[in-house]
Design a protein that fits this description.
There is one protein chain. The chain is of the alpha/beta class and about 425 residues long. The protein has 2 domains: about 120 residues, Urease, subunit C, domain 1 (Roll), CATH 2.30.40.10; about 300 residues, Metal-dependent hydrolases (TIM Barrel, Alpha-Beta Barrel). The protein is about 35% helix and about 20% strand. The chain contains 14 helices and 18 strands. The strands form 3 sheets. Strands 1, 2, 3, 4, 5, 14, 15 and 16 form an 8-stranded mixed beta sheet that branches. Strand 10, helix 6 and strand 11 form a beta-alpha-beta unit. Helix 2 crosses helix 3, helix 5 packs parallel to helix 6 and helix 10 packs across helix 11. The two termini are about 40 Å apart. The structure holds fe (ii) ion. The site of fe (ii) ion has 6 residues, from loops.
């Protein structure tokens, strides 16, 4: 007898229905439903033709700051800079219990939404490293459900914050997975370049990945992406390096953009665009025309660069809203970056699933394949386009073979004049639109 059997599911990119056997927390077999001899299982889920997908992956969030919006005051200007000021006022009151309870609450939201891998930045420009120690504890506490990667994030700088370099290395010693940087925030351009070199040196010495907040500013002169990508190329770190935000790209001229696409593609680095939060934060100093301030997602994808979408902030000093919903991130991302043809919307689904998994370097830990950990979602949809268009919630979330979340399919009964009461079926409509 096996642990779990899912009958009649549709794999992403394949119309044929399959039965999926799960045992011992891993995928045991995937067989066509048409000729399957079903084994007995302790638990059976009838997928009824729904989509089965690897779980959503969050490549960029700040769990140490989450759920602190309004503490001690609201960010009234809506700028990144006032957000940093509010956060530096909140930091002195951080405690271990405070960080653990807020981070775990949002991780439960993530799990309920079908996100089972999360990369969180944690601010280490705090001599006490309180949030870091708390999140290292959270990483251990949630590991049976969510794979949590922690980035040592020097929010107030490596060179520009007293002891910044030492704190970054201490975070590496304490066990972070990834080294961060924030070159555009450093006091001078030279400090910014030096901060990237320091981050890369520490990452190499401790065998860690790199994920830098890079050029998150509407300044067309902010060009640390070329520094980070070139360093990734020359050191051979390549896809172990990620540049997050890269919003200055929204202001680069076409000649420089062309040069940059070549440098970034050659480097093999990943990019993470955070469309919801950067649509909110960027352009705040503009009158009209007002810039969007986003990564050149379409152009970088065309150049062969791996790009993922992240949420970034959830109810914190930088962004007052958010429900940890990756489908909403992809939906907003599609519009904000004008990736709206059917194949481009499907690509947006990949940017919150397998492209984001590549950012985290999950490799064999991710995917609906025999032998891999049985973490997945069942989505009442026909394909990735359909998931994004209708903002579909997973009906089932399974973490390492264990059913951890269920949501009924939402239906609306319409009483239209002259017609019998009927359930509105948006799925049938989407079947037409994607054929
Ligand atoms: Fe961020």
């Amino acid at each position: 007898m096996i642990d779990l059997l899912v009958r009649g599911a549709r794999l992403v990119g394949n119309a044929d229905l399959v039965d999926i056997q799960i045992d011992g927390g891993r995928f045991l077999a995937i067989t066509p439903s048409a000729n399957a001899v079903a084994p007995t299982a302790r638990q059976t889920i009838d997928a009824a033709g729904a989509l089965i997908s690897p779980p959503f992956v969050e490549p960029h969030v700040h769990l140490d700051a989450t759920l602190t919006a309004g503490e001690p005051r609201w960010n009234e200007s809506g700028t990144l800079w006032e957000g940093i000021a509010c956060w530096s006022e909140r930091k002195p009151s951080l405690t271990r219990d405070d960080v653990v309870s807020r981070a775990e609450e949002v991780l439960r939201w993530y799990a309920a939404n079908g996100t089972l891998h999360v990369r969180s930045h944690v601010d280490i420009t705090d001599p006490g490293l309180i949030a870091l120690d708390a999140l290292l504890e959270v990483r251990e506490r949630v590991k049976d459900v969510i794979g949590l990667q922690l980035v040592a994030f020097p929010q107030e700088g490596i060179c520009s914050f007293p002891g910044g370099e030492e704190l970054l290395e201490e975070a590496a010693r304490r066990g972070v997975d990834v080294i961060g940087a924030i070159p555009h925030f450093e006091d001078t351009r030279e400090d910014g370049v030096r901060s990237v070199e320091i981050a890369i040196d520490i990452a190499q010495r401790y065998g860690l990945r790199i994920d830098a907040h890079c050029d998150e500013i509407d300044d067309e002169q902010s060009r640390f992406i070329e520094v980070l990508a070139t360093q990734a190329h020359r050191t051979g770190l390549r896809d172990r390096v990620t540049a997050s935000h890269t919003t200055a790209m929204g202001s680069y001229n076409q000649a420089y953009s062309y040069k940059l696409q070549r440098i970034v593609a050659r480097s093999g680095i990943n990019l993470v665009c955070n469309p919801i939060v950067n649509l909110h934060l960027q352009g705040r100093f503009d009158t009209y025309p007002k810039r969007r301030g986003l990564t050149q997602v379409k152009e970088m994808l065309d150049a062969g660069v791996n790009v993922a979408f992240g949420h970034d902030d959830i109810m914190d000093p930088w962004y007052p809203m958010g429900t940890a919903n990756p489908v909403l991130v992809a939906y907003v991302g599609a519009h904000a970056t004008q990736l709206t043809s059917p194949s481009e919307v499907a690509e947006c689904f990949r940017m919150v699933t397998d492209r984001a998994a590549d950012v985290l370097g999950l490799a064999e830990e991710y995917g609906v394949e025999v032998g891999r950990p049985a973490s997945f979602v069942i989505l009442p949809a026909v394909d990735g386009f359909d998931v994004i268009r209708r903002q579909v919630r997973p009906t089932h979330v399974i973490a390492r073979g264990r059913l951890i979340a269920t949501s009924p399919v939402a239906t609306t009964t319409l009483r239209w004049p002259g017609r019998d009461a009927e359930d509105i079926d948006f799925v049938r409509q989407s079947d037409r639109s994607t054929r």
